[in-house]
Each structure stands twice: as C-alpha cells, then as structure tokens.
Amino acid sequence: MKKAELINAFTITFGDGYIITEKQTIKQPKKLKCIAKAYIQSKLPKQFLNASLACYRYPTELHKWNNSSAFSLECKVAGTQCPPFWYSQQKFLQEESSYILEFLDPEHLLTNMRTKICSTGIPQAGIKADAWVEVAKNGKENGSNLSLAMVQDLLDKQNVGYALKTFSVEVEMAMTDAGYLVEADFCRIFRNWYIAQDEAGISCTQRHEFEQEFRQWLLNGVRFDVFPLEGRYVKDIPVILFEGLLLHIDRRSQLYTFTDPLFDMPERKTTNPKRKRGTITSLNEPAKGSNGIRAERYKVDESKILPHVQAGILLDDNLT
C-alpha cells in the first residue's frame, strides 16, 4: 500500500474523512547526450578521449597552420611539384618583423646518421647494422675499404670522412653483391642527399630532386593525423635527428625559391675535388691523432694535476 492510500484510510476511519490526492510524477528519461557522455566518461580511458579529440580537431588546425606559414603550399622549386606540404614553420622575429630560417649543418646530420646506422640500424625501415659489419669484415677484398673500427667501434663519431665512407658508392656496391639490397639503396639515397649539400656544379633542380627523394623516404609510412603522435623515436630514428633532417630539407627548398647560387654553375665542378679521407692507417704507419714522444713527456698538461695540488691544499699522508 502506498503512503497516500494509508493516510486516506486512516482519515476515513479516525478523522474527518479528508482525502488527499497523490501527485502523479512522470519520470523524464535522460537525454541521449547525457547518457552517452556518462558512459564515455566512465568506460573509456582519458588517453583514448584525448586522441579522439585531436583527430577531430586535426583538419581544422592543420588548415590554420598552413595559412599562417610564410611559404604557401603552392610555393615550389621551379620545374617541380615538390614538396607536397611543409613539415615545419619558420621562426618569426617580432622585434625585426622578419622570418629566420634555422637548420642544422649537414655534416652534423651526416655523422649522426652514421652513428645511428652502425649502432642499431633502422629496424622499422628494414635496415640492419649487420650489413655494414659484414661489409667491413671483408673491406679489403670487396673494395669498400670499410673497417670494423669505423663500424663496430664507431671510431671518431664526428669524423666526416668516416661518415662519407660509410655511405660511399663502394660500400653500396659491396652491399648489393652481398645481398643487402635495402641497405645498399639507403646508402644511395642518403649519399645523394649529402651530395646535394656539398657537390659543386650540379643544378638546383638536381639538388632538389636528391633532397626530395630522401624526404619521401623519411616520411614514408609516417602519419601525422593519428594520435598519440610518435615520442622519442620516429621510424626508429631519434626524433631530434629525424626532425633535423626534415627541417634542413624544407629550409633548403624554401631558399631555392629565392636564389640561383653560383655554386650550382657547371664550371664550379672540379675534376678532383678535395674530400676528407675516410681511411684508417695501416699497421706500419704512424697512427693518426697520436701524440709524439716529446709531447707526451715534456708538453705541459695541467689536466694531470690533482685538484687539491692545483688549489694548494695540503693533505695528511696518514689520512685513510
């Protein structure tokens, strides 16, 4: 029996017979929006919600970002249709009301790629460090002159000559003969990218094509519309190196649209250009980088002075 019916029965029997009427309340169902919101908040993790929101907003934000760039999507090197999009924007200096095109020097990127390739390879791209090790094991026989000291020991990581040898034509040919076709092709692509930075007498269009081929290799399989984005590594390449390479290529492409450098003129090309050597001395030759006997014995080297002696602090010999 409901409460109202109980009260009415009591008043009829013991009271004045006043009858109360019960208010009829119709329970309103929740709106679908509220039900969906409650379900999502209780069942789905925040990471999924953040990724979904980012995917939804990405097209609009990308459009705004492209429109705010100093270089439009229609800005191409003469005679080409590349790049299809820009990877980054330029830094704007408010006090000077001008843009600055910043990028790393190619030698720094070249030597860093050598370190990456020889240490771990790029597994996601099918590139194994073992390919360079196998070629280096027979460096004299296969004509590559690659040494295990350059590959396994990574002797002098910032040596440009060693880095050029790592991706040389001779190494590419030795890899092809040994069946390392993916690694051989990477040697060609990456070497051509560096040629575009360093070789005199080739056309602006040729430089651009070399750079764009490597850019396409870097971005192959990489998506920016899927969230969360990559973290410390992109395509198994450290993100600093990955972005440094793309920034360098984009900035060069943007500069090409304004300049026609004399460096590109055919007459600038020399028959025997000077190149840093990428070889290690043989056993019967003096080792590069070693100090002579007089330098070791007589040259002043204050780094060998103990700190307390340099500061004039006397220590008790009996201290333990």
Give structural notes:
Residues 267-289 are annotated as: Disordered. The chain has 320 residues and is mainly α. It has a domain at 106-268. It contains 13 helices and four strands. Strand 3 (233-234) and strand 4 (237-238) form a beta hairpin. The chain is elongated. The model has no long low-confidence stretch (mean pLDDT 84).
Rg over CA atoms: 35 Å
Strand coverage percent = under 5%
Biggest sheet: strand arrangement: 1-2
The major pleated sheet works out as: 2 strands, antiparallel
Encode the helix/strand succession as letters: HHHEEHHHHHHHEEHHH
Q: Would you report the number of β strands?
A: 4
Helix content: 40-55%
Structural class: mainly alpha
Q: Outline, from the CA principal axes?
A: elongated
The stretches of 5 or more residues where confidence is low (pLDDT under 50) are none
Mean pLDDT: 84
End-to-end separation: 93 Å
Number of helices: 13
Give a concise summary.
With 320 residues, this protein is mostly helical.
Key traits:
two-stranded antiparallel ribbon; two-stranded antiparallel sheet; 320 residues; 47% helix; 13 helices; mainly alpha
List the helices and strands and how they pair.
Elements (H helix, E strand, L loop, with lengths): L2 H12 L17 H12 L2 H22 L23 E3 L4 E3 L5 H14 L10 H8 L10 H4 L8 H7 L2 H10 L2 H18 L5 H16 L13 E2 L2 E2 H18 L36 H6 L8 H4 L10
Antiparallel strand pairs: 1-2, 3-4
